[in-house]
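Assemble and predict.
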Amino acid sequence: MSDRRFTEEEVQRYSRHIILPNVGGAGQRKLLDSSVLIIGAGGLGSPIAMYLAAAGVGKIGIVDFDAVDVSNLQRQILHTNADVGRSKVDSALEHLRAINPTIEIVGHDTLLFSTNVFEVMEPYDVIVDGTDNFPVRYLVNDATQFLGKPLVYGSIYQFEGQATVFMPGQETPCYRCLFPTPPPPGTVPSCAEGGVFGVLPGVIGSIQATEAIKLITGEGDTLEGRLLLYDALDLSFQEVKIRWDADCPVCGKDPTITELIDYEQFCGVPARPE
Amino acid sequence: MPVQVKLPTILRKHAGGEPKVSAEGATLRDVLDDLETRYPGITKNVRSDDGGLHRFINVYLNDEDVRYLGSLETEVGEGDTVSILPAVAGG
């Protein structure tokens, strides 16, 4: 238990958490002492980062390599019209600091590969996946399993979203227990091809922020072992079970994947620079 | 026996845009066969060429992954819901 004392400013800023059962002063101290890495400052990353910054997560890392495009603004609410052309990380840092100047916010202006993902993730307690492509999703899953870090997963397509929590280690499922290998190129369209309903990442990203906060404070039941499915067109939520797969190539009894893999780009992501 | 089949967005184009359709069968295999008869092409990316289930699209009977039941031989009954769930990566 942290013996951190709140500053006067923190007492005011976080008062609605501090008076809230199941968060309270103890939970707020945990948040201030925690660190979260958010992969992607796009549709999902925007609400995740904004809510976690507002909530007082003590250190937030933002990974992105891209620049803000005007077509992002329909859903990526962290960025504004004035940011078009600017690096997403720079834009994110400025807007998050405007929301909460009292926490540490770190930018990682890079693509993630097998060569740098451990180094980027290492300083953080919780990893939140808001990326937009399969190669990075598999890389992030495998790296969190190898590093022993919890992963808050969310992904979206058109009107549908999925979210869950993957804990490290055996006996609890990881992304590869759910989908052992990426789909072959061409079988699944990318967001750019399929379009995306602008509010959808707001719903799924907010659920991811919820789960990150609960992992930190230790209160409530997370989505571990449950895949939450959301359909914005029907406005329906559904849950299916995710079981630990003893044959999982990463977290199974006899793992066949013991090193990070850089999958070839196939869904709108630049190829790995040589 | 009719079961409800929940379709992901990506497959709805085969079924006139419907999110949920009915199909008949005593096992999941029968249901998928019936679905393919009603909506040609709809199971192309669900089943692999050898007839098994692809690993990048999951199928659930109610809330359970059919891999942990009987895969294609899983028995289905009236009132059951079969959900087809592809991996999606958007963010």
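Chain B is about 15% helix and 25% strand.
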